[in-house]
Design brief:
With 491 residues, this protein is α+β, with helices and mostly antiparallel strands. It contains six helices and 31 strands.
Length: 491
């Protein structure tokens, strides 16, 4: 069956649409509503709740009540948390706020829009972000993996939503490699886990099934790696897997471009896991898909799918798209207007840039003229997002392996820099190069960009590595390593 991507029109919805974001959650509560919570835009973490009333085709923001252990009404701002609906209740655990991994536990009663904090109930899993979870029937929730700020996780926890008890599942036999940014989806009696970013940083494309989650089956919990026929998805993380009918629909995410690519590759393909034939298939779509993205949400509403938000490495999206069967009335818009694909991306500008001001419009017109006349002009205001030490998971992992434990992130970074200063060019391992490059960016940014307003486009040897994110971006040699080591001494 063919499907069509159609960008949502203003006539599809009433009310106040959710603002652009990524790393949020969007869950179906029964068949009546979709609840969107949290997310991230322009380095700002969100804590708002926005609801789509399916029957009335209306977006609204409920006036929530409740109080947490610290007196707040609901969960603090966050992204990359888990959110699962059981009956009329939406359970939330963990996530990230700035550089901090969260371990608090909340439930929202969507009948009366009341938050309750459950963090003090028993022993909780360790704080984490980028975990994945799924409902087991209408009572339990299973959560797998994540990142705790120091290591990738491979633990499995089951929550009983009646007793509010978390239980770590003891799993025998082979285990999947630890990971974060993966998906976890219950299919019949098995939990299917696909993809994610693994220990050391590689992005994976493996599929695993976990048995032993249904008490009545009396199965010993165990993992099995599945190798299914068909056109399997490429390795990725930050994707979505949405259950609809007799198949699972995988969309988006991002992966590495390999040695010949300068940047991560973001995806906008649709891959179906057919539960009847038990194989991967490419979903046939007859038109251009939305812009590639990761950390979006895709919810199933009847025979339709609703895509919202996401991030493509540069911009955060706030657009809404329908994926519908070709006989759906929404699909008829395409024949009425062949150029339905919107020119407007409806995005918030990348994290490191402010929203466009009126004074910048003239500059953009000048820029357009420069492009048309093929005038090459380098702007000294070009910005590149450089992550902080606390956010650099590879840096922290390499630090723990090379110099052991440290009481603070800053001490770990300083100790690793001292290690690099004392190392010879040939003794620095391949695994250390990407964290080394990013640390170089940080130091150059603080010294020259923030302090002196230095133009990084000048082509100086001092800044020749500034725009690089990893070793794959241009040839390296021992002299290059020595150059980098020299500038690690920048205060």
């Amino acid at each position: 069956m063919h499907h069509h991507w159609v960008q949502a029109s203003p006539s599809d919805f009433g009310g106040t649409l959710p603002q652009a974001r990524s790393g949020h959650t969007a869950v179906n509560v029964g068949k009546s509503k979709v609840v969107v919570f949290g997310g991230l835009v322009d380095k700002r973490f969100l804590s708002d709740t926005t609801v789509y009333d399916i029957e009335n085709r209306l977006w609204y923001r409920p006036d929530c009540s409740g109080s947490g252990l610290d007196g707040q009404v609901g969960p603090s701002p966050r992204a990359f948390h888990i959110s699962i609906a059981i009956d009329c209740h939406m359970f939330i655990f963990g996530g990230r706020s700035s550089g901090k991994r969260l371990g608090d536990f909340w439930v929202l009663d969507t009948d009366i829009w009341q938050w309750s904090e459950l963090t003090s109930f028993g022993d909780l899993p360790s704080p984490r972000d980028f975990a994945a979870a799924s409902a087991i029937g209408n009572r339990k929730i299973v959560m797998y993996g994540g990142w705790d700020g120091k290591k990738w996780l491979s633990d499995v926890f089951v929550l009983d939503t009646i007793s509010l008890e978390w239980t770590e599942l003891s799993v025998s036999g082979a285990l999947p490699p630890p990971r974060c940014g993966h998906t976890a989806t219950m299919v019949e009696k098995r939990l299917l886990v696909f993809g994610g970013r693994g220990g050391g940083g590689p992005i994976m494309g493996d599929l695993w099934a976990l048995k032993g989650l249904i008490e009545e089956e009396n199965e010993t919990p165990g993992w099995t790696q599945l190798k299914l026929p068909g056109q399997a998805p490429s390795p990725r993380c930050g994707h979505t897997v949405t259950s609809g009918g007799h198949y699972l629909l995988l969309f988006g995410g991002h992966g590495t471009g390999g040695w010949l690519s300068r940047y991560d590759i973001y995806h906008n393909d649709c891959v179906v896991l057919d539960r009847v034939s038990v194989q991967w298939k490419r979903l046939s779509t007859n038109n251009e898909p939305p812009v590639a993205r990761a950390y979006h949400s895709l919810t199933c509403i009847g025979s339709r799918y609703l895509l919202f938000g996401g991030f493509d490495g540069k911009a955060t999206y706030g657009d809404l798209w329908w994926l519908v069967p070709e006989e759906d009335p929404i699909a008829k818009r395409l024949s009425a207007s062949p150029r339905n694909i919107s020119e407007r991306k409806d995005v918030h500008i990348a994290y490191d840039q402010p929203p466009v001001q009126e004074s910048q419009i003239d500059a953009s017109r000048i820029s357009e003229l420069q492009k048309r006349f093929q005038i090459d002009v380098s702007f000294s205001t070009t910005k590149i997002y450089v992550i902080e030490e606390s956010e650099d998971t590879e840096l922290l992992e390499v630090a723990s392996q090379v110099i052991g434990s440290a009481s603070t992130t800053e001490q770990a970074a300083q100790a690793l820099r001292e290690h690099w200063r004392k190392s010879t060019a040939t003794s620095i391992t391949l695994k250390e190069i990407s964290p080394l490059l990013r640390d170089y960016q940080r130091l150059i940014t603080r010294r020259y960009v923030l302090k002196d307003g230095f133009n990084l486009q000048s082509g100086s040897e001092t800044h020749r590595f500034y725009h690089m994110k990893n070793i794959s971006q241009e040839p390296f040699c021992g002299r290059d390593i020595k150059t980098l080591k020299c500038f690690l001494q920048v205060p």
